[in-house]
């Protein structure tokens, strides 16, 4: 079984150009506690780099990463599968949902292996359903997102907020709310539905607080 701390090493090992992305080092340092590596922050940064590679047509590295993702999903322990699905695949989906990102979702889906593509499609359905279920209330709008000038905060919003077709931005908290509401309706959970992504949600909430503090400075 592949453990989560080994999983990230395998991903970056398949993608040596990531080590030259100094702007992503800055992003990780901004949202990661000092001396406390955070795999979800790091896979978010890695996902941003992967989108850049897809846009540039660097097929060899993209294919190598896709192969590693298949291994993580097939051979990883529970935490590793969650890191691959939420830290990489879901981050990719969120990033390319935004109109200012020069890569379309179908372009990323096309380079994924069968296991990752299955996760992609399952999570797409989940986020669409959660978006349709969402309750009225304060949320980050597309106008809020477009007003963000800090490149690291923009990357944060890209990876943690998904733009729906109607222009509304939703996040992992909307997914949790949707799943909680479904659980209240019936004790029987729909087959194949992803479980509540608590680690990603907690990371998202902490990053949201950090982002809010940085915006108000």
Concise synopsis of the structure shown:
The protein has 217 residues and is an all-alpha fold. The protein has helices spanning 4-13, 22-31, 39-56, 59-75, 78-96, 105-109, 114-133, 142-146, 151-160, 172-185, 198-216; strands spanning 162-163, 169-170. It is built from eleven helices and two strands, in the order H-H-H-H-H-H-H-H-H-E-E-H-H.
Set down the secondary structure blueprint.
Blueprint: H1 4-13, H2 22-31, H3 39-56, H4 59-75, H5 78-96, H6 105-109, H7 114-133, H8 142-146, H9 151-160, E1 162-163, E2 169-170, H10 172-185, H11 198-216
Antiparallel strand pairs: 1-2
Helix pairs in contact: 1-3, 1-4, 2-3, 3-5, 4-5, 5-7, 5-9, 7-10
What does this protein look like?
The chain has 217 residues and is mainly α. It has one domain (4-216). It is 68% helix and 2% strand. The protein contains eleven helices and two strands, in the order αααααααααββαα. The chain has helices at 4-13, 22-31, 39-56, 59-75, 78-96, 105-109, 114-133, 142-146, 151-160, 172-185, 198-216; strands spanning 162-163, 169-170. Strands 1-2 form a two-stranded antiparallel ribbon. The radius of gyration is 17 Å and the shape is globular. 36% of the residues are buried. The model is unreliable at 188-203 (pLDDT under 50).
């Amino acid at each position: 079984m592949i453990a989560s701390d080994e999983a990230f090493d395998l991903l970056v090992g398949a993608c040596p150009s990531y080590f030259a992305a100094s702007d992503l080092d800055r992003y990780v340092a901004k949202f990661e506690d000092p001396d406390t590596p955070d795999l979800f922050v790091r896979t978010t940064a890695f996902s941003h780099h992967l989108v850049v590679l897809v846009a540039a047509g660097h097929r060899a590295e993209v294919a190598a990463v896709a192969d590693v993702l298949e291994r993580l999903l097939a051979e990883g322990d529970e935490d590793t599968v969650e890191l691959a699905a939420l830290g990489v695949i879901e981050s990719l989906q969120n990033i390319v949902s935004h109109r200012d990102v020069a890569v379309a979702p179908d372009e990323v889906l096309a380079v994924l292996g069968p296991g990752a593509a299955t996760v992609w499609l399952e999570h797409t359905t989940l986020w669409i359903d959660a978006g349709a279920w969402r309750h009225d209330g304060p949320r980050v709008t597309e106008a809020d997102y477009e007003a963000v000038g800090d490149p690291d905060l923009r990357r944060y919003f890209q990876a943690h907020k998904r733009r729906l077709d109607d222009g509304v931005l939703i996040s992992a908290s909307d997914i949790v709310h949707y799943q909680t509401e479904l659980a209240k309706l019936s004790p029987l959970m729909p087959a194949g539905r992803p479980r509540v992504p608590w680690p990603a949600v907690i990371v998202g909430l902490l990053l949201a607080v950090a982002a809010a503090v940085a915006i108000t400075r």
